Amino acid sequence: MVSTWLRSLIRSYRRHAAHFASRFSPRSHSGSEARLGMSGGCGYTLALMNDIIKPGLDALSQAGLPELSVVVPTFNERDNVTVLYRRLEATLAGIAWEVIFVDDNSPDGTWDVVRGLARKDSRVRCIRRMGRRGLSGACIEGILASSAPYAAVMDADLQHDETQLPKMVALLRSGEAELVVGSRYVEGGSADSFDKQRAGFSQLATKLAKQTLAIEIADPMSGFFMIRRDRFEELAPQLSTQGFKILLDLVASAQGKLRAVEIPYTFGSRQHGESKLDSMVALDFLGLVLAKLTHDIISLRFLLFAMVGGTGLIVHLVILFIGHEVMNAPFAEAQAAGALVAMTTNFILNNFLTYRDQRLKGFAILRGLIVFYIVCGVGLLANVGVAFSVFEQEPIWWLAGLAGALMGVVWNYAMSGLFVWRRR
Ligand SMILES: Nc1nc2c(ncn2[C@@H]2O[C@H](COP(=O)(O)OP(=O)(O)OP(=O)(O)O)[C@@H](O)[C@H]2O)c(=O)[nH]1
Ligand SMILES: [Mg+2]
Fold first, then answer.
1. Could you read off the pLDDT of 72-106 as tens digits, one per residue?
2. Which ligand is in closest contact with the Cα of 242?
3. N vs C: which end of the chain shows fewer Cβ within 10 Å?
4. What ranges in 121-260 are assigned the alpha helix state H?
């Protein structure tokens, strides 16, 4: 019975294959091939596509494709997006453009306002992301969704000066630059709307980034830039989707191989809505610098995970001390309590910090916590196993302990990413 079924499957496959071959064989396109002097049925399509994708050529406008994609990350910006769209329309009159809003399912319904704009103007596109948060990730996704030769990134809240966009396009078109940065820190630029504290932090961070990562541009923390999309795609696999500082990541990843030009602009005041900057941005920034210093061997997320692991060790020891020394509980029980509390605080901190772009909510927290206990339990076995085998070969207690701890944290990190905070 199985063999009959297999035979009929093969017959059906052959029938379909023959049908497909007859429809798409070179002979069936003889007309277009003769016209183009090509051999092979795909020649015509390929020639057409090649023409279309060459950046800056007339083919782009003939095919009605945009030369510039303006990527705008949004979170709760419903009152700003229409104003920004109108400003883009006015300033980009001579350029074939589109705008891609990348919205992380804003509770204020920003995506809905963008959809309304998109229904009236096909140059407006909306990517509505679910179960994810993060400015850098949104920008990366937006640029990768574009097919235009040039991509700009700018905020939705009207702090970036859109009238600079044509100048940026001209610099890319001329080949003078592959990246054009809207800079607050070159002559003619300013960030007067910053209060003292923010100005101080911004300058300190800029100095730190420039010195540690040997970055030459004056404003690597700018969120306003335009880049050749082909160069972006080359660098995209090295970029972190976490954090706020995508330009810094780009420039550091390019290691001086991206021709950059800075043009001055004045950073304005937010028009509507609230800032999304919080204290975590500083932590993200330090993590990014460290990740780039290690040439991405250690990711920002891993660093945060390991840091949280470090706090877990302290929690564990404190509980062990209280249980065993203060409350006179047997060592095994105090040790188990210490491990349980440390795993729980680690889970809460990781959910709050390390994976805040994929934060578990509601019932998923309970499920995640149970899986996290299991992952860490196995991680502990791996830790002890490795420590024992190292100690057998080289009886140096701290080396064996370190090797075991390293094994444990790598295991916990890898498995947590797979099973606890897996991408939905
Ligand atoms: N998609 C997405 N966009 C975000 C996220 N966080 C911030 N944004 C957007 O990124 C842009 C920059 O965020 P802002 O809060 O304005 O940050 P900022 O300009 O450095 O801070 P302010 O000067 O206080 O406005 C805005 O358009 C935000 O809506 C996020 O998690 N996801
Ligand atoms: Mg802003």
1. 999 999 999 999 999 999 999 989 999 999 999 99
2. 1
3. N
4. 135-144, 165-173, 196-213, 229-235, 246-254
